[in-house]
Specification:
Elements: E1 2-6, H1 12-16, H2 19-32, E2 39-45, H3 47-58, E3 66-70, E4 83-90, H4 91-101, H5 105-120, H6 128-144
Length: about 150
C-alpha cells in the first residue's frame, strides 16, 4: 500500500494539516476497504487550484471541498497498475467547514478523504439509496481511522 500526498505548501491552512496523520488515515481507509495492494494520490489544494479543477472537470464555478479522479474506469484504466486515483482536498474550504462544524482541520480532512476514496471505488450519492449506502460506508471507514 502506498499513499502519496502532494500539493504546494503555499497557504497557512495547508501547513496546518498533519500530513503524516493524513497518510496513516488514508492507509487505514484502504485497508478497511480491502485494498491493501492499492496506491492512492492525495493533493492538498487552495481555493484557486480546486476552483480551477472544479470548473474544468465538473463545469461548476468556485471552490469545492473534495474532488475524486478514479482510474478504475475510463479509456486508460488498463494502464493504471495499482493506482486507484487521486483525491484532491480543498484545504481552504475544509478549514471553513471545520470551523463551522467545530472540529479540527485534520478531522475534516479525514472526513473528506474518506468521501473521496469512496468515490474512487465507485460509490455515489446522486440517488437517495446510493447516498444512504455511501453514508453508512463513510461511518464504517471513519471508525477504522487512527485518532
Amino acid at each position: 500500500m502506498r499513499v502519496r500526498i502532494g500539493g504546494r505548501r503555499r497557504s497557512d491552512t495547508e501547513l496546518r494539516i498533519d500530513r503524516r496523520l493524513l497518510r496513516r488515515r488514508a492507509t487505514a481507509a484502504l485497508r478497511a476497504l480491502g485494498r491493501e495492494d492499492a496506491e492512492l494520490s492525495i493533493t492538498l489544494a487552495d481555493d484557486f487550484e480546486i476552483a480551477a479543477l472544479n470548473e474544468a472537470w465538473r463545469s461548476r464555478r468556485g471552490p469545492t471541498d473534495v474532488l475524486s479522479f478514479s482510474l478504475l474506469e475510463g479509456p486508460h484504466a488498463e494502464h493504471r497498475g495499482t493506482l486507484l486515483g487521486e483525491v484532491v482536498i480543498g484545504v481552504d474550504v475544509a478549514a471553513r467547514q471545520a470551523r463551522r462544524a467545530r472540529r479540527s482541520l485534520d478531522d475534516e480532512a479525514a472526513r473528506l478523504l474518506v468521501h473521496g476514496v469512496l468515490h474512487l471505488v465507485g460509490h455515489d450519492h446522486v440517488r437517495s439509496a446510493e447516498a444512504r449506502r455511501m453514508r453508512s460506508e463513510e461511518r464504517r471507514l471513519r471508525r477504522a481511522l487512527p485518532a
